[in-house]
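ARCHIVE CARD
SHELF: 3
SLOT: left
DATA:
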Amino acid sequence: MEFNNDKPIYIQIADYICDKIVTSTWKEEERIPSVRELGADLQVNPNTAMRTYEYLQNKHIIYNKRGIGYFVAENAMQYVTQLQREDFFDQQLPRVFKAMLSLNIPFEELQNHYSIFINQHVE
C-alpha cells in the first residue's frame, strides 16, 4: 500500500479496511488480520495498525474478542457508509467548493454536470 501525505497513515489504513468491508472482501462477524499481521502486510509499525483498529472500534466498524482477535462488526457497512459520508462532506466537498469559487463555476453548472453523470451511470 502506498501512503500519501494528505492524511494520517492510520486513517489511510482505516480507508483501506473500510474498502474491504464495502466490497464484501471482509464480511460482518468475520475475523480480520491481527494488528501484527496487518502491520506486516502493509509494512507499517504495529502501533500504527493498533491506532487504526482503535479508531475503527470507536466508529463501531470492528470489535475485539479478547484472546481471539478482531472482527468486522454487525452493521459495519452502515457505519462505513456514515464514515465515508462524513469524510466527503468534511474533506472532499469543501475542496470542490473552493475550486468552484476560484474557477467561477456557478452551482447550476455543477447541477447540470451531475445530472448528465447520473444519466450516464444509472441503468
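SLOT: right
DATA:
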Amino acid sequence: MSVIEITREHTMDIGHAKKTANDLAVSLSQRFSVDYQWQEDVLKFKRSGVKGQLEVTPEKLHIRLELGLLVRPFKDRIEQEVHHHLDNMDGVV
C-alpha cells in the first residue's frame, strides 16, 4: 500500500479551515471521483482503491491517503493536486 501524508499549518479560524478542507474535498471528488463525508473535524475520503482522511485542527491540516495497488500509479498526480490546491488557498502556509 502506498501512502500520501501531508501536514500544512494554517492561520485560519477553525470554520475557515474546515471550509478550506471541504473545498479540497470537492476538488478531489471532481478530479478523482472520491467520495467524502465529515465526522466532526475529520473529513473521510473513500473510493475504490483509496481511503483516507483530512484532520482539521486549530493550527494544522493533516491529510493521509492510502492508495491501493490500482491507484498507486497516480500517487504523484494526486499528491501534486493536493499541494497545488493548498498552495492556492488563503491562510494555508
